[in-house]
Amino acid sequence: MKFLNRVNYLSRFTYLFILAGISLSSLILVILFAELSNYQKLSNLDKAKFEFEQKKKNITKFYEQYKRFLISLDENTIFLKYLTNPNEENHENLLSLFDTLMSDKPEVTQLRYLDETGKEKIRIDRNFYGEIPNIISEVSLQDKSKRDYFIETMALEQNMIYVSKLNLNIENGKIEKPIKPVWRFAIPIVYKNKRRGILIVNIFANKFLQELIQSNTFNVDVFDQDNQVLVSSFENRPQWTKDLEKTPILEKDKFILEDILIDNINNEVLHIGFTPKDWALSFFEFVNSKIIILIFIIFIISFILAYYLAKIPKKLFDELESQQKFILQQSKLSAMGEMIAMIAHQWRQPLNGISVLIQEIEIKKEMNILDDEQFNFATTNIKNTLNYMSKTINDFRNFFKPSKNKTEFNFLDTVSQSFELSEVRLKDKNIEYEIKYSHKLDLNCFLILSFESEIKQVFLNLINNSVDAFLSKNIEKRKIIVNLKCDNDLIYIEFIDNAGGIDNKLIDKIFEPYISSKESQNGTGLGLYLSKMIIEKNMRGTIIAENIENGAIFKISIPKIK
Fold first, then answer.
1. Eight-state DSSP code of residue 439
2. DSSP 109-142
3. Which of 53, 183, 194, 387 lies at a C-alpha separation of 20 to 30 Å from 362?
4. What's the per-residue H, E or C state across 223-243?
5. Which residues 6+ apart lie within 8 Å of 328 measured at CB?
6. Sign of torsion, CA 239 242 247 253?
7. What pLDDT, in 10s, does the model give residues 83-106?
8. Whole-angstrom distance, CA of residue 260 vs CA of residue 272
9. d(CA 223, CA 356)
10. Distance from the first to the final alpha carbon of the chain
11. In 266-403, where do the E strands start and end?
C-alpha cells in the first residue's frame, strides 16, 4: 500500500483542460486553414480570371476612347476649316477647340497638331493631372519630324491609329522628373487625298496604371515581353526598370495567373501577373480576436470543470486520510500495548527484588536481628531499584514522545538504545543480538538530522517482530544481527535474524496494513506498515524485506539530511 500524498488536482485538471482545449482549437485551426487554403486557391484563380477580363476591357475601352477622340477631332469642321485656310482666325478657333477638349479631359497632358513636315502648328500642354491647360506660343513650337511617332503615324492609312509604347515622358533627350508615364495616340490627317500631318494626344498614364494594378485580393505586376517591370503593386519593388535601368524583380512562380494584357502594339507585348496577397496573415488577423475569445472561454470552462472534477479526488483524499488516521491511531494503541508489555518485562524482576528485600526486613524486624547496616543496605537496594524503574518509565515515555522537529543525533547510539529497551525481553527469550559496523569508520559518519524517536520506533517494531517469529518456531540459537554502513549522503542498515524467514505468501504484502504473520499471537499487522511510512514518507528513505537462508533481512537506507 502506498502512502497517501495529497495532490492539488485542481491545478492539474486546469492545465489538462486548457492544454486539451488549446490543442483542439489548434487542430480546428489547422484543418480550417488547410481547407480554406485549398478553397482559396480555387477561389483566387476564379477571381484572377475575372479581374483580368475586367482590366483588359478597361484597356480596350481606354484605347477605343482616344481612337474615337482623334477621329472625331479629325472630322471636326473647325479643324477642316483650318486645313482649308490656316489664317489667324481659323488658327484661334482651333486653339480654342483644343483648349476646350483638354479642359474636359484632365488626364490629357498634351494635344498637338503637326503638319506634313513634322512642325508643331498647335500645342497645348498640361504638366500635372487636372492642371489648367497651357497654350504653347508659336516661338516655342518644335520640329518633331525625326520622332518615331511622327514617322510611323504618317505611314498609316487614313483613320488608322498609332499607339505608342507605355514609357516615361522625355523632354530634350532626358527623362522628365518627376517621372510621368505617358501613352501616345496619333492619327494621320488625310485631306482631299493629301497627307496634311498628324493629330497626337499624350495621356497621363499613371492614374490609369494605378487603377490597373489595384486589387484587394492580389498583388499585380505589369511587365513587357522582356520581363521589364512597368508598374507593380508590391511595395519597394523597382518599376519602369527598362527606362530607369534598374534590375527587375518578378516572382513568376508565385503567380496564380499570368496573361497578355496588350498584344503587339508598336512591337510591345504587355503581360499582367496576379500574385495572391498573404491571405494566411489576413486569415489569422481575422481569427485573431476569435482565438483570444476562444482561449478566454477555455480558461473559464477549464477552471469550472477542474473545480468540480477536483472535488472527486478531494473527497477520496478526505476519506483515505480519515482511514489512515484511524490506522495510525490503531498502531499507536498497539504500540502502547507493546510498551506496557515491555515495561512489565522490565519491571518484573526489580519488583520481585523489592518484594524479597521488604520480606527480609520484616522477618529480621520480628526477630529483632535487623541492625542499621542491614536496614541501610536493604533501603539502598530498594531506592536503586526504584530509580531503575523510574528511568525505564522515562526511557519509554521519551521513546513514544512524538518529535516535532528534526534533531541531529548519532544513528549508532540510537540503534543501541533501541536494543537496550528490549534487552530484558531478549534475554528472557534467549535471543542474542549484535550491532556490527566498521571500526575504521569515523563515528561522525553516523550523524543524522532526523526524528530520533521514530528511528527507535522502527527498530522496536523490527525487534518485536523477530522475537515473535522466534517464539513461533523451535530454534535453539537465536540471534539478531544489525549491519550498519554509511557514506556522505546515506546510512545503510541490514536487520537480519535466523527466525526462519517470512511466509512466501505474505512477503510481498508484509508492509500493508492489517497483514500479519502472527495471527495466532493476535498481531495487528500495523507495525511494519507504520515502519514503512516512517522510513519512506517521513524520512524519504527506503525499506524492503527479503528471505535468506534460515531467516529474513530488512534492508533500509535513510538520507542523513532531508
1. T
2. EEEEEE-TTSBEEEEEE-SSTTPPPEEPPGGG--
3. 387
4. EECCCCEEEECCCCCCCCCCC
5. 530
6. positive
7. 999 999 999 999 999 999 988 889
8. 6
9. 128
10. 23
11. 268-276
